[in-house]
């Protein structure tokens, strides 16, 4: 086992349900790369220092903390601690079972004294009982009698490694949990702590089932930061000791210590009622339903096939039981980005969840609604109307200390509105639109109307903002932002017309709604007539181009080797920006982006885009496929899918890139599948690269389950359940009914010159 890869493997093998997250640390706790047990929303506050203070700067930041660790099970064999760094490791294998939702480990180890044991463990974080995680741990001798001691623990305030200088890593807070209660009795353990500054109370409890030979004994103890059950036994060859550990978690900013203790005890009782096998059966049934709706089949590239299923599993884990909490950029797999949620959630993650687990997407948007009071306060502080949602946050307030590439990126508002519209279009959930969607659409529309202005010719401008490309900050009329704002304004006006009572309750009148439509119709879309391309923002194409010839391969990402000042005034793109606009907004505004215009824009921006963000490759894959560059799309799809499995950005140790994982699905389904539903109906324009023989995927849409299968020369549409559904195939309308699949041929894409990439930044060909 390569211990240098331990931190990376801990992220890859992480288990979560969106509420509880356990990194894939070894059972015995050591050695480790980054200990990690997380509860969604549990954080600590810390001051944000500024060299120069400024009005409107956030005063404190939020950092996810490592809560009480319930997965630790230590083993001593004839008084020797089981530790992979000592003795001889005969074999060691860990398997993340995507069908069963468990992490399995099997190893054989010989102690320094010569005793050999076989250890098996199975770990799960329940998708059906959101407070519960569990471990089954077995040890048996291989060839001789041994004495074993198993110590099952709850551990708080574990030591964490220090920062490594990467701004994407987390701030390290030492001992953030203050003890309030420790308990140990029989096979039951419990610890209750409270964070010092944020005032959040955390309770974790464990119960055990012990199965071993006669004279197996147990004892327990606790102190402020450790509660421990000790199991002692003597094992003859053929005998085994098995410990099943159920762990319950809870937290609150309002509930009392006794109430929290009662809460986790109740969760333990429910888990015990199911039992270990019951939890396994529930997990498998939940995942069977998920894979029935979400699986993507890829023939011709086994690496992408494995990677996209890995991606789907982890995106499910990130959002399945988040339930009115954020979906962080790293999910609950690590502490990267301080555990914050960004615009990634709505723009990259929710489209996948909407089509596969729509109720999880709805809960993520309801979380945004719960943060509206803070977002309204932030807008008022900035002199704006409506709501200004934060660039990065855990609990709803702005946590970004860097204005240009943080708070100025107001497009997060439009991303939230876009996700609302997509969810309603894909589900027909009128109740959600009335109770949640209207309020989110109204308050985001109000922000755009107050942030922008009409010039003396009546053109509507949104100035001084940062778009998705963080190498072009505080610019005027960012095209992505303007088009997304336009869609937001129109969607708000339409929703208020459909739900006049909800609109009236928010104080929306006909004049305000008409003002939104006027602004939307007059939005400026920067265009360079001489070049025949849209500008990423006003004036972008007149900037000096970045000197790529003097940029070495080792100087990427640029933000770690060059000053932002230089990046901001050059034509260099961190991540697809205008290209993202063509993916996200094209169906809304086909008069802006026809197919020829899309091809010209893509060819212009491709040589400028360095992909210093994990969010870029999947978007470039979609547009490469749409413009007929299928081999390039294949390469970008692989990059998005393998972002963590291949550790392409060298920071998987801090947690997985959930948006890039979701982007792997987008690259396949929206890229090679050509799927779009921006206008409220499903449209497909499938085409495959030469190496892929077949692509198949299933979508949930308006109560139906639609399967799409694409081969080199044809596409087959099969309605697996639901009423007949009308879709478009390369522009032609067709209706699909249960039991009557529809086949259509694929047109040959128009050949175009292959676009270039910056030196050292071409994706690896497949």
UniProtKB/TrEMBL annotation:
Phylogenetic lineage: Bacteria, Bacillati, Actinomycetota, Actinomycetes, Kitasatosporales
Disordered as annotated region, ranges: 737-766
Binding site for substrate: 343-344, 574-575
One Gene Ontology MF term: hydrolase activity, hydrolyzing O-glycosyl compounds
SUPFAM superfamilies recorded: Galactose mutarotase-like, Six-hairpin glycosidases
Species of origin: Streptomyces caelestis
Keyword Hydrolase: yes
Protein name: Glycosyl hydrolase
Domain spans labelled Glycoside hydrolase family 65 C-terminal: 675-736
């Amino acid at each position: 086992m390569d211990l240098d890869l331990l931190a990376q493997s801990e992220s890859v093998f992480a288990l979560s349900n969106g509420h509880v997250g356990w990194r894939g640390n070894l059972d015995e706790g050591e050695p480790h790369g980054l200990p990690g047990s997380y509860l969604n929303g549990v954080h600590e506050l810390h001051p944000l220092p500024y060299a120069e203070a400024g009005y409107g700067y956030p005063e404190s930041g939020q950092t996810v903390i490592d809560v009480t660790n319930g997965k630790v099970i230590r083993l001593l064999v004839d008084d020797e601690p089981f530790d992979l760094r000592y003795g001889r490791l005969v074999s060691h294998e860990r398997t993340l079972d995507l069908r069963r939702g468990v992490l399995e480990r099997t190893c054989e180890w010989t102690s320094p004294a010569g005793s050999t044991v076989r250890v098996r463990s199975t770990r799960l974080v329940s998708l059906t009982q959101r407070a519960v995680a569990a471990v089954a741990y077995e040890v048996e001798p291989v060839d001789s009698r041994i004495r074993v001691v198993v110590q099952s623990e709850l551990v708080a305030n574990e030591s964490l490694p220090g920062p490594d200088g990467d701004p994407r890593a987390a701030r390290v807070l030492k001992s953030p949990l203050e003890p309030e209660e420790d308990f140990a009795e029989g096979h039951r353990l419990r610890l209750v702590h409270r964070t010092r500054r944020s005032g959040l109370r955390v309770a974790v409890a464990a119960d055990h089932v012990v199965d071993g030979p006669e004279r197996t004994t147990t004892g327990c103890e606790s102190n402020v930061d450790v509660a421990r059950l000790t199991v002692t036994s003597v094992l003859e060859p053929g005998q085994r000791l098995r410990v099943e550990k159920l762990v319950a978690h809870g937290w609150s900013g309002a509930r009392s210590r006794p109430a929290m203790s009662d809460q986790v005890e109740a969760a333990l009782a429910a888990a015990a009622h199911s039992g270990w096998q019951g939890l396994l059966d529930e997990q498998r049934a939940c995942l069977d339903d998920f894979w029935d709706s979400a699986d993507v089949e890829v023939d011709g590239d086994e690496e992408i096939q494995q990677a996209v299923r890995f991606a789907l599993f982890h995106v499910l884990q990130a959002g399945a039981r988040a339930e009115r909490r954020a979906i962080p950029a790293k999910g609950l797999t690590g502490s990267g980005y301080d555990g914050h949620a960004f615009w990634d959630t709505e723009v990259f993650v929710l489209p996948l969840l909407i089509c596969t687990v729509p109720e999880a997407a709805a809960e993520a948007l309801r979380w945004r609604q719960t943060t509206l009071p803070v977002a309204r306060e932030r807008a008022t502080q900035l002199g704006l109307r409506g709501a200004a949602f934060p660039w990065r946050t855990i609990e709803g307030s702005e946590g970004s200390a860097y204005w240009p590439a943080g708070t100025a990126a107001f497009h997060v508002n439009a991303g939230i509105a876009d996700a609302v519209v997509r969810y309603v279009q894909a589900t027909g959930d009128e109740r959600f639109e009335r109770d949640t969607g209207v309020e989110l659409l109204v308050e985001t529309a109000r922000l755009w109307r107050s942030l922008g202005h009409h010039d003396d010719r009546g053109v509507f401008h949104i100035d001084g903002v940062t778009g998705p490309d963080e190498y072009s900050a505080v610019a005027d009329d960012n095209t992505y932002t303007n088009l997304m704002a336009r869609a937001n304004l129109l969607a708000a006006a339409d929703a208020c017309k459909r739900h006049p009572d909800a609109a009236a309750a928010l104080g929306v009148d006909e004049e305000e709604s008409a003002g939104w439509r006027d602004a939307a119709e007059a939005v400026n879309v920067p265009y360079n007539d001489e070049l025949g391309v849209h500008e990423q923002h006003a004036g972008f194409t007149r900037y000096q181009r970045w000197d790529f010839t003097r940029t070495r391969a080792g100087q990427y990402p640029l933000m770690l080797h060059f000053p932002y000042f230089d990046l901001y005034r050059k034509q260099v793109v961190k991540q697809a920006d205008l290209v993202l606009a063509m993916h996200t907004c094209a169906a809304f505004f086909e008069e802006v982006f026809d197919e020829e215009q899309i091809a010209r824009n893509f060819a212009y921006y491709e040589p400028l885009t360095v992909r210093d963000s994990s969010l870029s490759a999947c978007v470039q894959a979609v547009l490469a496929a749409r413009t007929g560059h299928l081999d390039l799309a294949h390469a970008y799809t692989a990059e998005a899918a393998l972002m963590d499995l291949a550790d392409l950005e060298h920071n998987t140790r801090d947690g997985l890139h959930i948006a890039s994982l979701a982007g792997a699905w987008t690259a396949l389904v929206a890229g090679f599948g050509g799927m779009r539903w921006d206008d409220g109906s499903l449209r497909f324009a499938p085409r495959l690269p030469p190496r892929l023989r077949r692509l198949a995927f299933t979508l949930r849409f308006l109560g139906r389950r639609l399967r799409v299968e694409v081969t080199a020369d044809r596409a087959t549409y099969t309605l697996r359940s639901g009423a007949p559904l009308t879709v478009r195939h390369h522009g032609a309308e067709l209706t699909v009914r249960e039991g009557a699949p529809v086949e259509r041929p694929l047109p040959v894409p128009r050949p175009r010159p292959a676009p270039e990439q910056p030196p050292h930044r071409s994706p690896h060909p497949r």
